[in-house]
Amino acid sequence: MAGTQGIDRVQIAGSQLVNVMGGQFEFVMASDKESRVASVLPSESVKVIAESVGVSGLADEASSFLAEDISYRLKLIIQEAEKLRQHSKRKKLTCSDFDSALQMKNIEPVYGVSNREGYVPFRHASGGGREIYFTEEKEVDLHSVMGDSTPKIPVDVSLRAHWLCIDGIQPSLPENPPPATKELQKQEILDTSLKQTAGPNRLGQKRSHPDSSGKHKHSHHQKHKDLVKLKNLATHELSVEQQYYYKEITESCVGPDEQKRAEALQSLQQDPGLHQMLPRFVAFAAEGVKINVVQNNLALLIYLMRMVKSLLDNQTVYLDKYLHDLLPAVTTCVVSRQLCLRPDMDNHWALRDFAARLVAQICRNYSNNTNNVQARITKKFSKAIQSEKVALSTQYGALAGLGELGTEVVKSSLLPYICMLGDRMKYVNEGSALNSIDKIAAEHIKKQLIKYLPPVLKSFHNSSESVEEFNVAYGYLGPFLYSMFLQKEKGLTSAGAMQTLATPARSTLQLSQRPAQIVIQQPAPSTPGTPHQSSFLTGTPSFQRTSSISSMSNPSTPTGVSGAQKFVIVSQGRSSSSISSTPAASNSLMKMVGPSQSQGVAPGVGPGAGQKIVLIQGAATVKSDDSAATPGNQVRTSILTSSQSAVGSTATSSSNISGKETL
Amino acid sequence: MATTSSASEVAVKEEGSCQYDKQTLVAVLQFLRKHNLKGTESLLKEEAKVSEDDLKTEEDKKTEVSQALAAVYKSDDDPSLFEDLYQDLKTFIDSCLDVHKVELATILYPVFVHMYLELVFNGHQWNASQFYSRFWQDQDEHRHEDLARLTSVRQKEHMVGSDNQLLESFKTSKFILRMSRDSYTHLKRHLQEKRLSPLLTIVQDHLFIDVFDGVPRTQQQIQASGGGLIGEVDRDANKAKVLFGLLREPDVQIALDDEEEGGDGDEKPKKKKSKKDPLLMKKSKNDPNAPAPTRIPLPELKDQDHKDKALAFREAKKRAKLDHNHLPSICFYTFVNAFHGVTCVDISDDSSLLVAGFSDGNLRVWSLTPQKLREMKAADDLEIIDKEADDVMERIFDDRTASDFKTLSGHKGPVYSASISPDRAYLLSASEDGTVRLWSLQIWTNLVCYKGHNFPVWDVRFSPHGYYFVSASHDRTARVWATDHHQPIRIFAGHLSDVDCCCFHPNSNYVATGSSDNSVRLWDMLNGSCVRVMTGHKSAVHCLQFSPDGRFLASGGADSQVLIWDLGTGTMVAQLSAHTNTVYDLCFSREGTMLASGGLDDSIRVWDMQKIMAEQDTEADPSVPSNITINDSPSLLLGSYFTKSTSVLGLHFTRRNLLLASGPFEAPS
After folding, report:
1. Chain A residue closest in CA terms to B583
2. Which CATH number among 2.40.50.140, 2.30.30.100, 2.130.10.10, 2.30.30.140 corresponds to the domain B330-340+417-664?
3. Hey, is the C-beta of B80 within 8 angstroms of any chain A C-beta?
4. pLDDT of residue B57 exceeding 70
5. What is the CB neighbour count within 10 angstroms for residue A27?
6. Measured distance CA(A416)–CA(A528) in Å, rounded
C-alpha cells in the first residue's frame, strides 16, 4: 500500500519538477551545457516524501537507490512530455504535457496542478540554508466572490488576415514587424563588412517601391554578385504613402495647430516603421534649425526640438547614423548666441535647457568608444565656459549642457572654470555698461549654478569651511556658492524639501543617468584653496538665503498635450505658447527690482498660479528655515532689499540674486 | 459509394486471420493465468486446443530475447581500460590522413555510446560517468540531445525493460556507417593490431560498416547524411524502384476544359499558354516513371469532382508565375486570442476553408471566402427538394445556419492534426486521445471514430484522391485507412521512434513518413514495404511535402533544416538552412518552382526550387555516396518574411499561387 502511495508522491514530485522547470525548460536539452552531468534527486527528498506517506526510517541505501531510479523515470517522462510540447507547436513545456506523458505511460496523471503561460505555480522560498518549493494557495473569500461582478469572459479566438508580403516586399503595416529592429539597425551600423546582397540578411530586403516593370533591384544585384562584392547603396525611395506621411507629420510638427502637433509627435514617438524615413526627418530638423536660428524664430526651434525629442524617444529607431546631422542642430539650440528676437524678454532659456537635455539623452544612448560623442560634446561646452568672448547666453547653454551630463562632468569640466565665469559675471554686474540682456543672462547662469552645483560642492567641501576658502577657490562667485553650499548643508530638511519639491521631473532624469560616465581624461579639479578646519559660523557674516529656484517645473502645456508629450519647461517655466503673451508682465517685474529699491510685490501677481520663490539677501534677519517653511510653498513673494550694510563683495550683486520666478 | 467495391480489394487480406485468432486466444489464456482463473483457463485450453507449448514459447521467447539483449553488454573487461581505449582510437583517427579522418571519425559516436552502456551494464557507474564527462563534448553538436538522454541511464536496472526507446534502438539495431574501402582497411588494420581489446568486440557486435568502392566522402557529405538515430542507411535499403511519376488525369476532364475554353471566346492565346504549362505537357506524355492508374484502386470521380477539376484547371490558367524574379505575395491569417490553444492548421485545396485544431480538443472551421458555412437541411426538408434541379447542391443547404465559422467538438485531448478532404466534404482530425475522427463538413458532425492507435496520433493526411488517409502515431507506426473501414488497411512499422508526420504521394501510391529517429521513409501502398530510408535530419522530422511533379520530397524538422530528397535515388539534393527554430510546415508552389517553409521562429522562408532542380547533378552514380553533391548554397533562399510574434503553422499555395499562411499570435512575454 505504502508502495503505491509512494509512487503517487513520486508523480507529484515529478510534476513539481517539471513545473519548476516549466519556465526554464525551453530547449534545456539543446542549450544547457554546463549542467550536462546527470542530476539526481537528493535522497533527502525521497526520505521526506517517504515520511509524508508514513514510511519512516528509510535506510540511506534504499533512499539513494530510490532517488536514482526515480530520477531516471522522471527523465523518461519528461522526454515524452517534450514530444507533446513539440507536437503542440509551443515553445514552452506545460503541466498538461507532463500529465499527458504520464497517461502515455499508463500512469494516473497528477490532477490539480496547472500552469498558465510562463507561470510557475510553485513558489520558491529559502531560509536557514534550505530551499523549498511550494504551491501557494490563497484563501478565497467566498463573500467577495459572490459579491463581485463576474469577471470578463475571455475574448473568443478569431481569425484576421493581413498582407505579410506583396510580390516579395513586406508592406509597412501595423501587423508586420518593423522593417528593421533596433538591434538590426545597430548591427548594420557596426557591421563594416560588405553585405551579402542575397536574401538571408533581413536588411537586404529592398524597400523600393514596386514598380510596374517588375524588375527588382534584387535580381540586378544578384547578377553582379559573383563578379564583384558590392556594398549596398542605401536607396531612400519612399512610397507614396510614406511621402504623404512625411508631409503630414512635418507640417503638423511646425504648424499652428497644437492638437495636430501632439498627434504628429506621438506618431513619431511610437510608430515602429519610421526606419525608412529617418534620414528625411532628421534632415528636416537639421535644416529647420539652421534656418530658424538665423531668423531667430524661437517657436519653430522649440517645435523642431520637440520633434527631435520624439524621435529620440522612439524605441524602434536607431539614430546613430544620423548623429552628424542631429547633434549640431541640437547643440545649436543649446549654445547659440541668439535664439529669439527679443533676448531680454523671450524665454529662450527654456529651449536651451530642453535642448541640453536632448544632448544628454543622445550622449547616454549613443555615445560609445568609437564616436566618443560625450567626450566631444563635453569638450565643446567646456570651451564655451572658458571662453572670454562668447555671449553669456552661450555660456548659459554650455552650463546647462554640462549640468545635464551629470555630476562627474560638472566636477571635471565646470568646477575648475567657475572662477572665470565669476569674473565674467562680475564684469557684467559691476561693469559700467548696463546691459540688461547680459544681466538677465547672468541671473540665469546663477540659477543654473544653483541647480547643478550643490551635489558636486557637497562632495568637495565640508560644512566647517568658511566663505574665504570659497572666495579663494571660486573668486567672485565664492560667497554665492558658499551660501548655496551652506544652504545645502544646513537645511537638508527644509531647503532640501524645497529642492526636491522643486525638482520632481528632474529626479527621473537623474535616475536614468549613468553615474560617472566620464570619457575624458582631465586633471582632477584643483582643490579650491587649502581646506582647513575653521569653526562654523565664527565671526563671518552669515549669508543666508533660501535656496530658491525651482529648477524645473512641469507645467502642462496649455494645449493639453501633457500625457504623451512631456515637454518640460525649465526654470521660469512659462510654457512655450505663452512666450509672447506675457513678456510685458515679466519685464515690468524685472524692472521693479532695483538695487536699492524695496518693493513688495503683492502675492498673486503674475500669470498663473505656482510658486514664487523668495530670494533674500542681506543681513541675517531672515533665517532660511523661516522662508523655507513658508506654508505650503504657496504663492508668495517677498523682496528683501539688501541693507546698506553691505555684505562683503556681494553688496551689488544682491539685486541680481533676487528675482522673480513665475511658474 | 461506387468506389467502395473497387477499393475494398486493398483491404485487409484475410489469410492471417487464423494466426490472429490464435494470438488472441493466447493473450486471453495469459490473462486468465495471471489472474489465477485456473478453471476457465483449462476449459478454454481444451476447447481451443491450444497446447501448453504455444503458451510457453510465447513467454520463453520474451525472456530469451531480454536475456540475449542483456548478454550483449556483458563483459569482464577492466572498466578503467575503456577510457584509454577510446582515447587510443581517437589518437589513431587523428593521425590518419585528412581524407580518411572525417570518415573514420563517424565511428567515434557509436563506440562512445556502446562503451558507456557497457560500463553501465557491468555496474561501473563511477567509471561510466568519468568516461562520459571526459568525452561527451567531442561528439557532434546534434548528438548532444541524445547523449543527454543517454546519461539518464545510470544503472543496470535502467537497461532492463523496454520503456527507453533510445536505449532499445541501440540495443537491438546495429549502428550503420558507410565508408570507403580505403578508410575501412585503415580501421581494420588498426583494430586487428589490438586484437584482444573490447573495442573490436564493440565494432563487431554493434556496428555495421557498409563499405563502398570509391573516393572517401567529404566532411560536408558525411555531415549531411549523418544524424539518424542508428546512423545511416545501408546501400540496399534504397534499391527498389519508386514510381514517382504522376497518374494520367482522366480524359473527361480535359474535354470539359476545352468546352470551357471555347466558351470564353479567345482560344488562341490560351492554347499557346497551355502548351507552355509544364503540368499540361506532363499530362499528354506518358511518364515512364508513372505507376499504372490501376496499381492502387482509386475512387471514381463524381460529377461534382469533374466540376471541381474543371474549375481548378481554369483557376490554374490564371496562375501567377513564380521564380526568383517574381516572388510570391503572402496573405497571413493570424489567430488572435488563441492563448496557446492552436495546435494545427489546414487549408482546403481550393483555399476556401481553413480548419484549426485546438489543445482543448475542439476543431474550428472558417470560411475564407464570402460564402458562409451552412448546414445541410434536415431529412424531411431534403425530401421535398427537386433532385433533378441544376442547383440541387445549393438547395440542400439551410441558409439559416450560415455562419463564418463552425466548431466541432469530440476529441478529449489536444488535436494534433487536421486534414480536409479534396472534395471539401470531410475533415479528418488526429488527437492525443489516440483516435482519428472523420467529420462531415455538410452536416457538421462526427461520422466515424477510428480507433487503432493506442497512443497519441501526431498526424493525419488525406490522400490527394480522397478515400484513403494515413495517420502517424506515437506507437511508432503509420497506418493507412480507408474512410469506410474502421480497421487500418496497411500498417507501416519500421521507424525506431515516434512517427511524427506523414504524407501521401501525389499519385497516391506511396506514403512518406518522418520520425523522431531522424529518418524519413517512403512506403509502398501496394505491398506495404519500405522502399526508401533517408537520413540527414539531426532531429525529429515534423513536416513532409511532395513536389507537385512527384519527384522530390521536402522535409523539415526540429533541427530547423529543410531537406530536399530525390525519390528516384533516395539521395539528398539540397539542404536549406536559414530557420532558427523548428520547421512546422512546407508548401510547394503549384508548378513546383518554389518552396515555402514556416515554423516556430516566426518567419516564412521562400526557396528557389527551380535552381535546385537545375543544379542537380543527374549524371552522378548514386551508388557511390561520395559522388553525391548536396546543394546548400545560401542563394537558394529567395526571401525571409517575419511576422511580429506569430509562429507559422500552416502554409498553402492557392491555385493562382498566392501563398496563404496561418498561425497563432502570441504576445511576447
Report:
1. A89
2. 2.130.10.10
3. no
4. no
5. 15
6. 9
